[in-house]
Amino acid sequence: MMAPLADRIRPKTIDEVFGQKHLIDKDKPLYKIIEAKQIPNMIFYGPSGVGKTTVAEIIAKTCGKKLCKMNATSATTADIKQVISSRGTIGTENGILLYLDEIQYFTKKQQQILLEYIENGEITLIASTTENPYFYIYNAILSRCTVFEFKQLDSRAIIEALMRACEILKDETGCKIVFENEKTVEKIARASGGDVRKALNCLELCALTGKQAFGEIKISDEFVEETSHKSAMRYDRAGDEHYDIMSAYQKSMRGSDPDAAVHYLARLLEAGDLPSACRRLMVCACEDVGLANPQIIPIVKAAIDAALMVGMPEARIPLADATILVAVSPKSNSAYEAINAATQDIVQGNSDPIPRCLQNKHFDGDENKNKGQFYKYPHAFENHYVKQQYLPDALKDTVYYKFGDNKYEQQHKNYWDKIKSQN
Questions:
Q1: Are 192 and 157 spatial neighbours (Cβ–Cβ below 8 Å)?
Q2: CA 323 to CA 326: how far, in whole Å?
Q3: Are 388 and 376 in contact (CB under 8 A)?
Q4: Residue 353, preceding bond cis, omega within 30 degrees?
C-alpha cells in the first residue's frame, strides 16, 4: 500500500523543509544546533502539519541517533521504560532521540520517569505539542528543555510544497498535473489553514479523481472547493485575514453590534477555529463588559465549556448565545484600566514595602521603636469598614480603579461614598 503523499514528499534534509525560516535559516539557532550535532532536549511548539515531526526525524538522521517515536495520547509507562531499556543495544551507539508527540497528555509521573535520563544525556528528548508548553508541560521538564515555536506556514511555503508534490505525482503517474488557472493552486494552499499535510492530502485526492486526458490530469477550481469542503478564499489562518476576523469579532461585541458579532463568529467557526472564538469571547466578557454586568463572566465560561463539550457543529449554539449576550450587555472597562495602571507601576518599580499593618508577621526587631502591627479588623467596625492605609507609602494616594458610569458600578459607588464619608 502506497504511503500518503505527505509522507512521500517529506523532506530528507533541513534545507528542504518548507517554511519555518525563523528557525532553520542558516543563521538561526536551530540550524546551528543541528549543524553542530550537539542536540539539547527540546520542545517543538506549534500547530499540526507545520514540520515538527519532519525536523525531529532530520535531526536524528543527521546526528546518527536512533529515533524512537511515541504519541503521548496512547503511550504507556511501559512504553517509556522499553525505550529506556534499549540503551546500549545495537543501533544506539550514538544515543537515542525520543520524539514524544503531544507531550501535554503525559501525566506528571510519566514525565518524571524521563527526567533522570534526559538530565544525564542518555536520552535526548524532543517533545512536540500544539498547546502552549508554559501552561501544559510540567516545570521540571520545561526547565530542562529549549522551546522552539513552529508557526503556521504561509501560502507561499505551501505552494512550494504543492509544486514539488506535482513533480512526484508526475513521476508516479506519468501524467502532468495541470491547474485550471494560477489561482487554483492558491486555493488549495489557502484552504489548508497553514497545514501543509492537509494541502497535500487535498492535492492527492484531486489528482486521483481529476480528469485525465492526453497525459495530463486537470484540476479545476470547483473540484478543489468540493474536495476541501471550504471556500478556498474564505479564511487564511496564517495570514492577516485570520487576525482581522478575530479583531472584528471582538470589536463588534465591544461596539454592541450583535449582528456583526454573530457574523464574525460564524466565519471563525466555519474556518474550524473554535479555540480562537472561545478565547476572544471570554476576553471580551472580562475586558469590555466586566463590572457593568459581572455575572456575565461565569455565564460565558459555562457557554464555552458547553461548546467544547459538545463540539461542532452544535458548539455554535452556546457560543452564539454568549456572543449576543456580550454584545447587548452594558459595557465597562474600569477593571481592565485599573489592572493596566497597577501593572505599569509595578513594571516601573513603584512598589515600596508593604505597610506594617498588612504584613504577615507579629514580631518587631529591636530597631523598630514603634512596635506593634496596628492592623484594624474592618468587621469590628460599623458597616464593616475602617479607614487605614493599604497601599505602600510611595503609592498611598494612588487611584487605579475609577467607577464606571453604568448602573451596577454606580450603585456600589454611591454606597461606598456614603460609608466612607462617615469615617
A1: no
A2: 5
A3: yes
A4: no
Phi, then psi, of 312 in degrees rounded to 5: -80, 150
C-alpha cell at 71: 504519541
| pLDDT tens-place string over residues 362-386 | 555 555 555 556 788 888 888 888 8
Report which DSSP code applies to 354: P
Count the residues in the chain: 423
310, 356 in Cβ contact below 8 A?
no
pLDDT tens-digit profile of 23-72? 888 888 888 888 888 888 999 998 888 889 899 999 988 888 888 898 98
Q: How far apart are CA 356 and CA 392, in angstroms?
A: 9
**Concatenated DSSP letters of 32-55:** HHHHHT-PPPEEEE--TTSSHHHH
Task: Name the DSSP letter for residue 79.
Answer: H
Q: Which of 191, 200, 199, 189 is nearest to 155 (CA)?
A: 189
Angstrom distance (rounded) from CA 289 to CA 259: 17
Residue labelled with grid coordinates 529549549: 146
pLDDT tens string 275-327: 889 999 999 999 999 999 999 999 999 999 999 998 888 999 999 999 999 99
